[in-house]
Each structure stands twice: as structure tokens, then as C-alpha cells.
Amino acid sequence: MPRTExxxxxxxxxxxxxxxxxxxxxxxxxxxAATKISEIAKEAGLSHGLVYHYFKSKEEIFTxxxxxxxxxxxxxxxxxxxxxxxxxxKIKWMTEQILQGLSAGEQILxxxxxxxASTSDAVPEEVQHLFSSPEYKSPVNCLVPLIIEGQQCNxxxxxxxxKLAVSYYAFIQGFSxxxxxxxxxxxxxxxxxxKIFK
Length: 198
Description:
The chain has about 200 residues and is mainly α. The chain has 2 domains: about 1-55, Arc Repressor Mutant, subunit A, CATH 1.10.10.60; about 65-195, Tetracycline Repressor, domain 2 (Orthogonal Bundle). Helix content is about 75%, strand content about 0%. It has 10 helices and no strands. α1 (about 5-35) packs across α4. The model has no long low-confidence stretch (mean pLDDT about 90).
């Protein structure tokens, strides 16, 4: 019996997701420049041609992963803003969610993709356009209003809010890299990280 249109769409979405997760693993190990479509196909357990059926290039896949990583970072800040409590309590909640994600697997690789995307010369032009686009919401810029709110109620130190946000993400990215290099790396409690705001 032939598949229905809905079943075809579901299969297509499942295949695309399978390829994206495989690509995330390969890009995190090899970087954008060194990765080949054949390696992504092998990681996904699919044929080389089937990957090309769903995506036109490794650049397209990398760009989609960068978009996913950026959206994920901003969504967690937006969710934090909806939590009960003071600005610092909201940042603590967000930090706990991020640190749990670092232990879970995929989240840590998304952090690594963002680091690659913002530091490598080999990233696709679409990624460069994404970062320079007026619509792009950087996690640092999205966190700043919450920091300012905390400063206004004397809960967060009166340092430059952008420098505080950059320092916060530097900690998170540092833990991500350490966890990738050393699987047994202990992930700190959220309280240790949010001390930079006190």
C-alpha cells in the first residue's frame, strides 16, 4: 500500500532530522572545512545520494545548524524571562537549564557549532550574513535587558551589562569545550557561574 502524503512528509522530516543530528556530530569533530557529505551520510547510516536528496550542500546543513543553535540560545532566555522571581533568579533558572543540556549531548554540540561559526574563516556566506543581519538576535544582546533589570533593583553589580553578558557566555562556552575534551569533566552548580553578577 503506497504511503499517504502525510506519511511522506513525516518521513521527510525524520530523514532531515537524522541527517542534521549526524552532521552536528561530524561538524563538531572535524569542523566545517574538513567535513565531507560522505562522512555525514556514513554517520547518519544513509547513502551519499540520499543526503543530497534532502540538502543541496554541507554549507546548507551547517547554516541550518547555526540557526538552530542561535534560536535555542535565545529561546532559553525568553523562557527565563517568563519565570517567577527576580532577574537573578531567572538567570539562575536559565543557567541550570543550560548546564543540564551540557550533560545531555546535543546541546553541547550546538554550543560548539556556534563557536565554530563565530571564529572560523571557513563558514558559509549565509552564516556570515546571518550574524550581520539586523534581525539576528545574539544571546549576549538578549541577556543584557535582564542584567540591566537586575542592576536597577540592586541585585546585580553595576558593571557594564554587555561585559557581564559576554563573561557569562564565556564561562558556558568554556565548560562546553571542557566537557567535549574530557567527558568526566564536572559541570559546576549554577550558583558558581552566577557569582559573576554579584
